[in-house]
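Weekly puzzle thread! Below is a chain. First person to post its structure in token form gets bragging rights.
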Amino acid sequence: MKNTVCLLVLSLLLSFTSAINAQNNETIAVVEHTPIIEKTNKPKKKKSRIPFYYRHHRQMPSTFTGYTIELATSKIPLKRDDELFKYFGKVYYTKLKKGGFAYNIMVNFSTKSAVRNFLENIVIHKAPDARIVEYKKGKRK
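Winning reply:
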């Protein structure tokens, strides 16, 4: 215990004297040890990551019955970073009989007028070609 107190007092005195020497304009050399890191000029590979706000689209369940809002159709599958997926979550796709794909969101409304109200007030601003589509057991009506 006495040794610890003595070491503490000694370290305080040494720091105090170095502070006084610095005030007297004496030159003090401070040497820092920094590890040497070799830098290589290899270019870093940029990962093409899709931003987190883009969502995955899934295939429409084959048992779904109810109303959906068809946001868009395309002849080829849309890429994951399409603007459509930025604005809408839980987008489902179906393959159309005449070729191409339809992208839908399922809505939980029991009447077509409630779906129409949702379409006109919310969806149409981000998907101007959107329309209502009814499904029975996974089949379009």
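Puzzle host: Confirmed. Bonus trivia for everyone else. The radius of gyration is 34 Å.
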